[in-house]
Write a structure and sequence with these properties.
356 residues; Jelly Rolls; five-stranded antiparallel beta sheet; 2 domains; alpha+beta; Neutral Protease, domain 2; 18 strands; six-stranded mixed beta sheet; 27% strand
Length: 356
Amino acid sequence: MGRSISSANTLCSMLAILGLGCSAPAEIRYETEHLRIAPTFDEPLCAGEIERFERHADRLEGLLGTRMKQPVTVYLWKTEEFPVGEYCAESSIGCYREDEHAIYTTSLALDHELVHAVAWDLGKPGDFFVEGVAEMLAFDRVLAGWDSPVTEIDKPRAELSYRTAGHFSRWLWQYYGQGAFLDLLATEAKSSAALESIYGLSIDAAAELYLAEAPYAYAPLHACEYPPLTEVEPGRWMESIHLDCDDVGTFGGPTGMGTSRVLEVEARADFLLETDAESLSIALCPDEDLPTEPVDFDPALGDVPPVTSAFRGQYVLGLSGGGDVHVLDLVPGRYEITVGQQEIVSREVVLSVERP
C-alpha cells in the first residue's frame, strides 16, 4: 500500500459531504514546536521517537525554504491497526489532509507525510512532483524505479510509481540544484509542463540525461545520527547503555524500544559482537550513493551488504541478544548497531564489539 495526500474517496470525506462530522480518532498527548501527536494506542511513544520526527520537520522547513503556519496534528496508529479507507484512500497507509492540517498514519510512513505537510503551501505541482519530493526527503535511500519518468510524469497519484517519482525528483535536485527544484514546486502546471517551464527540457530530453547520469540509489540526506560506540582500547568497544523510554536517546513505542550506536570500521576484518539486551541488529549506514544495484551477498561486501533484493532500502542483519557472540566480516564504513527489547521498561544493557 502507498502513501498520499488525502483523497475524497474516504469514509470521513463522505460523512463531511452529508454534513456529518468525523470525530478525531485520539487525543493529543505529545506536543513539540512542529508536531501535535495523538497516538491511537495506550502505550507510550519514546522520547527519541518524538525527537526524531520533530528534527525531521525542522530540517524539512530548512530544505524547502518555508515554515508551517502552525504545528501539524499527527494521528498515529500501530501498523497492523491502521483503518484503511476510513481517513485515507483505500490503497494508502497514511495521508496528509490539507483541510485539517493533519496527518493520519503509522510511524512507517510519517517521514513521507511530514514532507507533504511542510511543502503544501509552496505550490500545487502535479502529483508526480508532489509525491516525488515526499519520497526523496523521507528517511530511506531513494531507489530507481522500474518505470520510466516519461510514462509516469503525468499519471494521477493512484497510478503513479512513487519510486520513479522520488528518484527522478532527487536527480533534478542533485543535478540542477535546490533552487530550481523549489521553483518547480511553486508551479501550478501539470508535471510535464512544469518541468519544461523551469528546466527548459521536455520530459523525453530530461529522461535521456537522467538515465545516463543517475545512480541506482541516492543516499538519504541524513543518516545514522547516533553517538559513536565508546572505544575503551584499540580494537575494543564497550558501553553500558540505559534503555529508558523517557530518554531522548531511546526510540520506539508502542511495540518495543531500543537505541543505536555507530561503529566506524577503517579496515576489513572479523569483529565479535555481543550484548545482553533482548535483541541486536547491525546495518551499514547509507552514507553513499550506490552507482549500480549490488549483487545479493557479494563476498566483497562482507556479511552486512548495503542492500539486498529483499531489503532494498537498507539491509538490516538481525542477531540474537542474551549474551550470544556473533562473528561478522565487516568492510570499511560506518555501521549502525541497535540493541532493544519488546517491553517498555527501563533496563541497563551492555554492548561490546571486539576486533580480535
